[in-house]
Design a protein that fits this description.
By secondary structure, the protein is of the alpha/beta class. The chain contains 14 helices and 15 strands. The protein has 2 domains: 264 residues, Acetylglutamate kinase-like (Carbamate kinase); 93 residues, Roll (Archaeosine Trna-guanine Transglycosylase, Chain: A, domain 4), CATH 2.30.130. A hairpin with a 5-residue loop joins strand 13 and strand 14. The chain binds glutamic acid.
Length: 376
Amino acid sequence: MTTAPDAAALLDAAASIVIKVGSALLVDDAHTLRRDWLGTLCADIARLQVRGARVTVVSSGAVALGAQDVGQPRGASALAIKQAAAAAGQVALAQAWRSALSDAGCGSAQVLLTPQDTEHRRRHLNARATLDALAAARIVPVINENDTVATEELRYGDNDRLAARVAQMIGADLLVLLSDVDGLYAADPATHPDAAHIAHVTDIDDAIDAIAGESSSAHGTGGMRSKIAAARLATGAGAAVVIASGREPAPIGVLAKGARATSFDAATTVPDARRRWIRASLRQAAAVIVDAGAASALAQGASLLPVGVVDIEGDFERGDCIAIRGQSNNAELGIGLAGLDSVAARDAMAAAKDGARTVPLVHRDDLVLENPKTHE
Ligand code: GLU
């Protein structure tokens, strides 16, 4: 059992960090945005960027910010009112982030996601490519659920879960859940003021679940149960997770100095989690046949480029799982998620023969090789 500096060390070491910010931090009881606080968080984010970290924000607050604008229009269902509030509030939320990030010297972008975008492989690849492009441009994505179109049956439901999915999608190594609690306690601190704080969780077992279940009512929108569910998702995808209080100004700076928090160890590595995810795909009856040069490049950890493809069998969509076979003996070298559909892939093959530069047919992160040698 180790103590709080764990979270600080994780923060220090992480190359790609997802920071989730809860509504209670961003919006006060009078539904007013806490601009000064947001300014200090954005200065924290700028410092992380300066040391080379990739930062992705998942921000709640749209419903809380838009609630007063919308009021209680007659005849509208509770769901419609909430979705209307989210629509109105999201504009204010995005404006606030843009202005605060810009003051801190960072670019910003708004990304609204629904569960299909992270769960469905094709949309997952699209959303990931967008987030990767923003990262390459050093722009901080500010992500929220697309509340206006999400239906009750098909929602992330809370942004803890959305943040975990985002961490999984971009292969982040750290997810920080900022809320109004400084981590997990052995019992609900609302009813057990002396409950012991838990600084470090190596494994989210039944005992942790039981604690989270007990304290779920006490802590804001998401509650501890949803935070532990998110932690389970993210640690299973190879990210470490920190649950920390965001109440203080500059909450990431405070965390880096050793503030009390709960850290969760990653349960696997990002590449292993990704390989499992790809293996769980439904395979299409389609294959690409690659030449010896491409086969050896793949074994070295490269992406599959159209120039190395000699034939394409069958049809597929972008995001489909397809087989990769070697030209020499037709043996299966592995599987991967297609980065192009089969029509575009055939076009790219032809263009590559003419010497054109083309995008990968299967990105290295989307490949699972049969006999990896030095892959990854
Ligand atoms: N998407 C909701 C909002 O922006 C918040 C969901 C949550 O708090 O987890 O208001």
